[in-house]
Amino acid sequence: MISSSSLSAVGGCRRSAAVPFHWNTVKPYALISPSKASFVSSNAQCGCFRVLRGGSCFSPFGLGNGGFSRVKASLSDESDELSLIELREPSCLEFITSERVKVVAMLALALVLCNADRVVMSVAIVPLSQSHGWRQSFAGVVQSSFLWGYMISPIAGGVLVDNYGGKVVMTWGVALWSLATFLTPFAAEASLLALLATRMLLGICEGVALPCMNNMIARWFPQTERSRAVGLAMAGFQLGSAIGLILSPILMSRGGIFGPFMIFGLSGFLWVLVWVSGTSSTPERSSQISSYELRYIKKNRYVPSLPSPFPERKLVVPPFKTLLSKLPTWSLIVANSMHSWGFFVILSWMPIYFKTIYHVDLRQAAWFSAIPWTMMALLGYFAGIISDLMIKKGISVTATRKIMQSIGFFGPGLALILLTRATSPSVASAWLTVAVGLKAFSHCGFLVNLQEIAPEYSGVLHGMCNTAGTISAVIGTVGAGYFVELFGSFKAFLLLTAFLYFSAAVFWNIFSTGERVHFSQ
In terms of pTM, does the model score above 0.70? Predict the structure, then answer.
């Protein structure tokens, strides 16, 4: 029982007549008529709990991040007593200053480094090709060596994430891919084999980044906040493209070919130090989280079956055959494959498209590299807010995910069609920005859905989808060149991509679900 003397210590409340109350567990943060023998101090001047008409008690949201811990300290049996209280939704200020937002901010920084390290080679390949006498076709082989490694690791990385947790795997991933980035210019000076090996190592290690992100968000965020969390993390991923493409030429002008690789590599080592010392794998293991935030996360997480990330835990081989036997799994694979196809086709071929069709030299146009990906980062977070609000308003998770994914696929498909009809490079650039920006809504579709249909297998499921997406990216990137040679038209390939977007959206809307899938059945 929560006594009046226990709660009167909070915020300087003065004791008065006790009134019975209990909390409404159906509608969060509302009160229902008094029942049971639970009592709380009441006083008109109390800043923590206020007596309402009819004998109920209400907190005017005076308990912030640290406030609830003071209640906890005054209770003799904290577990039983706190279970009587339905925690309120945090304010905007409490959300952005919470421990879980610190975790997702660190994930976003990791993804900034992930994509920045990846795209540095697209800038450095020009002076490397000139100094080594590489033909353009061979330069493409060097750039594709990243995807060789990236195709290998997502599934294995997902298994490790599900068994050992996102913090441990992300630590090793960032440390090793930063090492590979740092060593790349030295490897290029040593031999071609060494360069290809470091690029493959980069791809292998970066393959664990997104499964780790999904795992950490599933552990740290309630379901009604996960879209926002994914939006924040993926904003870092998209900004990494813009940052890498803009800063690399600047750093190369100051420090030569070694400049961007060494700066981004050392930044990764710094990130690892902060990550290891300042974050925890789960809220329960955090020494910095407040009692209120911990209770709020545990009360609303809805994934109690997530395994504990203890290193001594026996490695479990996931049921790949069972996972592939369910159509919701295939809806995720198709969605991820199409998302990767569009992403890499736009990243790799749009500069050449503009140069060929509109005769625009975009090598010095930093805004062209920055604006579409910055727009994607902004719209990704905006989509996350909308998605979370839809769920809070009572729209089903399934309907929310289908709406978000439909915008993320039908929107870019339509924008690419309009891009092919643009009569000037400025209009075409505008439609390209729309296409890339609307792709961000997919993050609140298939990317969040990985945590929902199989929280216990979200890492390996993400790995499977990433592998399929990488294969799709290779086919799309390489196939675009052959398609243009065969049909003589970039526009026809963009129309094909738009058709694939529409087809993937239809498949998603038919077979996806926002409910948990029981793979044991």
Answer: no
